[in-house]
Write a structure and sequence with these properties.
Elements: E1 7-18, E2 21-33, E3 38-42, H1 49-56, E4 65-75, E5 81-83, H2 89-95, E6 100-103, H3 107-110, H4 117-129, H5 133-146, H6 152-156, H7 165-177, E7 183-187, H8 195-212, E8 215-220, H9 223-229, E9 232-237, E10 240-246, H10 247-252, H11 257-264, E11 300-315, E12 320-336, E13 340-344, H12 351-358, E14 366-371, E15 374-375, H13 381-387, E16 391-394, H14 398-401, H15 408-419, H16 424-437, H17 454-466, E17 472-476, H18 484-501, E18 504-509, H19 512-518, E19 521-526, E20 529-535, H20 536-541, H21 546-554, E21 578-580, E22 590-594, E23 597-600
Helix pairs in contact: 4-5, 5-7, 15-16, 15-17, 16-17
Amino acid sequence: MLDHPIATIENLRVEFQTKDGPVVGVEDVSFTVNPGETVCIVGESGSGKSVSSLSLMRLVEFGGGQISGGRLIFDRKGGEQIDLAKTDQALMRTIRGNEIGMIFQEPMTALNPVFTVGRQLTEGLRVHKGLSKDEATARALELLRQVRIPEPERRLKQYPHELSGGMRQRVVIAMALACEPRLLIADEPTTALDVTIQAEILALMDRLKRETGTAVMFITHDMAVVAQMADRVVVMFRGNKVEEGTVEEIFENPQHDYTKALLAAVPKLGEMTGKPFPEPMRLLGQKASDVVAIQGSDVPLLTVKNLVTRFPVKGGLLRRTVANVHAVEDLSFTLNKGRTLSLVGESGCGKSTAGRSILRLVEPMSGTIDLDGKDIMALDAGGLRDARLDMQMVFQDPFASLNPQMQLLDQVAEPMRNYGTHKGSALQDRVATLFDRVELPRSFMRRYPHELSGGQRQRVAIARALALNPKLIIADEAVSALDVSVQAQVLNLMMELQAELGISFLFISHDMAVVERVSHDVGVMYLGRIVEMGPRQAVFENPQHPYTQALMKAVPIADPRRRKSELDLNFKPIPSPIHPVGYEAAPSKYTEVTPGHFILTTDSGY
């Protein structure tokens, strides 16, 4: 170990200029990162943790920020030390990507939509390392294999929009690791990933850190990830560092009240053992007696039978369909009024496509979808528009689902304007009430999406979904990008709304602890099929399918003394869902283990 740190942040202060005057993003933060060490920076969204990392990369200026105080000392490859706060942008271009790598939180904004994955992966290698085109392509393939992307040769030719969220994030990680940087800044790199891939990527980053001596600055709000990765932990709150210590000290003897609150908000797998119904999360200060279990009803709201969705793969000169991606294959389930059904599985298993197919945002090939007596598949465009009054969706990436040029007031009001449900001052009042509902200050109604943190944007998306009082909300990874305390509030909010308004949720997620928290019923998906389905208690306390068991095993534990090694994670590579035209999949057959608890007996490939 070298005696001096790779990066030293001293008294950093960052300000942003807004219409209402300067806003301090980071007030006064100091910490160091040593070679071969992982420093985790934790805190809620808006606490200034991402701003600190963007300052190190000197990218904060491009977002309207300004480093107004402090020093950022970086130890370069040649051994010289420079203050990044005073370095000119020309030298920063050499350092960025080459000596400091960065993994961003939202992969779709970090990738360029008009270039192929291969072009983006090889660009840094050719600029910084001077590799030839063939050498760079070979290295890119090797990187994609390292982050466990299936069929890497095909992926190099694809564009970012053709990959699922988890795949895109893996490409971003591969890009950051391409030039073997001395310091890797990872800003929430695994929030959008499912447990199995998250476990693997954490193990991968840990291995690379050990092999290359790279220092890692890991920004996250997931305390279980902190327990798995960190050597030291820095806790931030409202632009200041409130606590710093080794990972054992922080978990076993937290000193600051905020750190204690953060640890208390972490949903833990197994917390709901023995409880048949979900209950709103006990936020700090709530008495156990105030918490009500949500029973739901026995009346079906949504019935899906034999749903099949496939996407054509075109090729050849005439762009004929040469194969199909079997995204959803023979999917059937029933969701009752006022209840929550969760679909869980890895990225690419078809859970998001299933959600979109139900709303017919993606056209299914066959199957029946019945929503409260309406046959959704038989509706024409006008009928579908009316049916959407009853069903709404909250998407995974709130930045992509909000319009960057509209004020938030107009975005939440838009569905009501479209359907003419409220007008004039009644419309304003309804929007204000919705903002109160999702616990956002009313002053935010004048803001634009880029002025909010990720968690706040997701709450706006939920407010917009609630605007028309729908019967069904499909929440596609709605809380995966939120930090624990905000996640607890948003889930609490969703469950209170369910208790009050009787809304049914189809909850699509990969976070097993959250699913255990909110679900009445759980369906585990793998390669487009449900492999196990049943009441939450049955699936979580008695998982029967080998895939469900592997998923449960991959869930990170918020305890630094129970870290998982790479050897614990022996996942099978996911087979390709692409089959030639004319391929007929076997129908799904199930065995009932206990009443209502079913397991797929058709060969699922796992």
